[in-house]
Design a protein that fits this description.
This protein is α/β, with parallel strands linked by helices and 250 residues long. It contains eight helices and seven strands, in the order αααβαβαβαβαβαββ. GO terms for molecular function: O-methyltransferase activity; S-adenosylmethionine-dependent methyltransferase activity.
């Protein structure tokens, strides 16, 4: 029987079969096991093609992870989402995952300042037969959200689910706007909230760049604010680079 101990990690316990590997290799082995066992065997063909295409992009590291998208696919179906929002689209890999999870009359609004990146993945969104569910809007994320908030029904909650994977420096600003656009009971997910684990490490950890230190500081503040926000129920998941789920309760 698995047992929880607050001072240890069950996945990386010392008596693990991987006890001779270093920490990074252990995590890599676990991640690969998850991918090969439950993700890749059921991965939609168009999702696979777009994932591989994204990995070849010079900025491919900005793409969402396939295990994370599998989780979102299930989550969206579990909450019965029909109208969703995505801030930060890149090549559209997560946008495609969302569109596949939505019912035929569902809609995902994707916001990004770079249409060129989105156009790379759009043919695979078409190929998957879900283009009619996608509403891409080019522009600054804050400006687009502000325009949405002016709509007559914005106060009633336009969306069931939102995914924010844009500039981390403005996560707090996105949070205030997205919550107002989300229905009570709806869920918003923020990506990269562990930032390579840096939020749990000293600021001057060897090998960290100035950007890493800056984003780490921003996310420490954001994570603390989310944890204290009484408008939501929050859960920080150690999946991919950290995903914070927030369910709006008021």
């Amino acid at each position: 029987m698995g047992t929880y101990h607050p001072d240890s990690n069950t996945l990386l316990r010392s008596d693990s079969i991987l006890e001779n590997c270093d920490l990074i290799n252990r995590f890599a082995a676990i991640t690969q096991y998850v991918l090969e066992t439950t993700v890749y065997p059921r991965e939609n063909e168009c999702m696979r093609e777009l994932r591989l295409l994204t990995e070849q992009h010079p900025w491919g590291f900005m793409g969402s992870s396939p295990d994370q998208m599998q989780f979102f696919l299930m989550l969206l179906k579990m909450i019965g989402a029909k109208k969703t929002l995505e801030v930060g689209v890149f090549t559209g890999y997560s946008l495609l995952a969302t569109a596949l999870a939505l019912p035929d009359d569902g809609k995902v609004v994707g916001v990004d300042s770079n249409r060129e990146w989105y156009e790379l993945g759009r043919p695979l969104i078409d190929k998957a037969g879900v283009a009619h569910k996608v509403d891409f809007r080019e522009g600054d994320g804050i400006a687009v959200l502000d325009r949405m908030l002016l709509l007559p029904l914005a106060g009633d909650g336009l969306f069931d689910f939102a995914y924010v994977d844009a500039d981390k420096q403005r996560y707090a600003a996105y949070h205030e706007r997205v919550l107002r656009l989300l229905r009570v009971g709806g869920v918003v997910a923020y990506d990269n909230t562990l930032w390579g684990g840096s939020v749990a490490m000293p600021r001057d950890t060897p090998g960290s760049s100035e950007l890493d230190r800056s984003v780490r500081d921003i996310l420490l503040g954001f994570n603390a604010a989310v944890a204290a926000d009484d408008r939501i129920e929050a859960c920080l998941l150690p999946i991919a680079d950290g995903v914070t789920l927030c369910r709006r309760v008021k």
